[in-house]
Every structure is written in C-alpha cells, then in structure tokens.
Amino acid sequence: MSLITLLENEGEQIVAEAGDALGRSDLAHYKEAGQAVGQERLAELFRLTVAAVRDRNLAPIMDYMAQVADDRFHAGYAIREVQIAINVLEEAIWNHIVRNTPPDELAEALGLVGTVLGAAKDALARAYVSLAGKSKAPSLDLSALFEGRTSG
Question: Which residue, 60, 64, 69, 89, has most beta carbons within 10 Å?
Fold first, then answer.
C-alpha cells in the first residue's frame, strides 16, 4: 500500500487519535475552543499534509501555517500550544505508518511526513517570531526551550 493510500484510508482514525491526544494535553486555548474545533483544525492540517506529500509541494501548508500563526497569535495562544497540536497529529500519522508500512519503506514514508510537518512548524515559528517583533507579546514564551540546560 502506498503512503498516500494509507493516509487516505486511515485519515479519519488518525485525526480522531490526534484529537484525543490534543484533548488530553490540557492546553487552555484548545480546551476553550472545544473538541469539535480542535478536530476540524487537525483535519485541515492533515488534509494539507497529505496534499503536500502527494503533490511534493510545501507552499500550501506553509501558507496555511502562517495564517494559523496570525490567527492564534492574535487570539493569545502560546506558540507551544500550536506546536503541540502539530506534534500530536504527527505522532498519530507516524504510528499508522509504522504499523502498516514494510520496514524497507519506513524511512521514505516517515521522511516525507517529517519533512512536510517540519516545514509547517518552521513556517509557524517564523510567523510567530515576526508577529512578536511587531508587538509586545506574552504569547511568545521560549523559556521552555532552555529549561534543564546547563552551561558548559
């Protein structure tokens, strides 16, 4: 089974699993928005992920993530909340790939999905940083990146 076929066949289950994980993540803004909204957002990100893999074109998902960044930034979401949402989708996709893909095809399949969602995360982060540079923003808290780090 091709990667695209796998993703298309298991898409609803993947999005449902990601939605459940997002619900367990205890993120204030996503809880406030509600499960249905979270599912819709994950479904759209999944759709764009599949399209990017199929078409080998990152532009639509990167444009989408720039818009998501703008929307979430102005709604007061911390960047980590949106990153976690992407991560739960990525984990659900990876789980399905690992369960259903022959070992000799895993590297390519995981690499494609990782590349697409990595580009999405990069676009999100660049947009958040740009927005934070234009205003004083409490939603851009990067301190978690450095927790537990010692010098030397």
Answer: 89
The residues, any chain, with a CB within 8 Å of residue 44's CB and separated by 6 or more, are: 64
37 — pLDDT class (breaks 50, 70, 90): confident
Q: What is the pTM of this model?
A: 0.84
Domain 3-132 in CATH 1.10.443.10? The answer is no
Nearest to 61 by CA among 10, 112, 97: 112
Domain coordinates of the chain in residue numbers? 3-132
**CA dist list (Å): 84 to 8, 75, 133, 146:** 23, 17, 22, 17
What DSSP assignment string belongs to 66-103? HHHHHHHHHTT--HHHHHHHHHHHHHHHHHHHHHHS-H
